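ESCALATION

Customer reports they have been waiting on this structure for their group meeting. Please prioritize. Original submission:
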Amino acid sequence: MDAVEFGSHYLETARSTFESMKGLAEKAIAQVPDGDLHWRSDPEANSLVVLVQHLHGNMLSRWTDFLESDGEKEWRDRDGEFEPSPNLSRVEMMQRWEEGWACVFHALQTIPPDDLLRKVAIRGQDHTLIEAIERQISHYAYHCGQIVQLARQRAGEKWMTLSIARGQSRSFVPPARS
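Update from on-call: job pushed to the front of the queue and completed.
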């Protein structure tokens, strides 16, 4: 496998990973009543809206002009991302969600598959493109996991599992590998 084949495979894997976590979080959010999108367990905890606001801000900052400018943009208000927005509707929240992810997926398409060792800056620190992408995969997986957990709590008995249901593992037969 040459550098272009490896790079193409890696970028497709990263895209697929991002798509998977995006879809999982969306399925979780869909199960939460509108009135619970702003719920927080305590004043210091994050609501679903706050988590989406933070991811939106991070995604726009990290992935806008990804190859040419520092991933921490001067215009970003990270602290503001963690402030409750009590008037933000589900539709507005999901618009931010989609805008952030669109920025991620667009930026991934601009990365040359044979240039994954190129350096980019995040908060003034150099990262290879692979390191920068892996940093974001880890960060988004962390917050998407929080979204799923919080959604699970708010959905209560109406929750529909996003994976193999408890007690059903034996009935899951993985597809044969070719």
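Sent to customer with the following note: The first strand starts at residue 119 and ends at 122.
Escalation resolved.
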